[in-house]
Amino acid sequence: MIRLENIFKVYGSGETEVKAQNNVNLTIYQGEYCSIMGPSGSGKSTAMNIIGCLDRPTLGNYYLDNIDVAQIDNAQLAHIRNQKIGFVFQQFHLLRQLTALENVMLPMVYAGVKANERHQRATEALKRVGLEKRLNNKPTQLSGGQQQRVAIARAIVNRPVLLLADEPTGALDSHTTQEVLNIFGELNATGITVVMVTHEPEVARQTQRIVWFRDGEVLHSHLTPADLSQMVVS
Description:
Elements lengths: L1 E10 L6 E11 L4 E5 L6 H8 L7 E6 L2 E2 L5 H11 E5 L10 H11 L4 H14 L15 H13 L5 E5 L7 H16 L3 E5 L3 H4 L4 E6 L2 E7 L1 H9 L1
Parallel strand pairs: 3-8, 3-9, 6-7, 7-8
Antiparallel strand pairs: 1-2, 1-4, 4-5, 9-10
Helix pairs in contact: 3-4, 3-5, 4-5, 5-6
């Protein structure tokens, strides 16, 4: 599903040069549920941006679903983001003037889905995250957890093969965090590949595999939840 080969991402030059990715090699298989961890400045967010086709590597190859996306043009890249990848962020990025249903329908407008199908698929996605009674509520009428569930519904409505989550529980309390993680687990159980950046060990422990970054490099690519305690302590 995801294959990063000899990835470098360099910012600046000379004395100001920073290698945000330093010869990163990483494979994530279809159907995996992975978390990416590491200290601040370790390169985990840069890796997520490259995986999500939001940024390009300076050097190296990135294969997503057997397509070398590091080599394609911006229009093709935008199409792949829309068709193959769903994004969930710490901030929900919902349009305040739109209802939950309208927010979830928005990605399908860009994908050229017909109006009737947009309504049907958005309704199904909101039901999937337990918000069938909140279709016509605007973000200001929803709790933080409900807003994140709307964001998840929006991320899956185009039926992506890959769901990327960047600190998706960072703005939530512990109870709501668990509700959101349960949804990610259920989505992964249907075959969606889930990759999550988090700084919270208790969140990472609920994924199947943990990738640990340090100084722009993959220090460990196959940590288990049991291994994580030693990493956090050290």
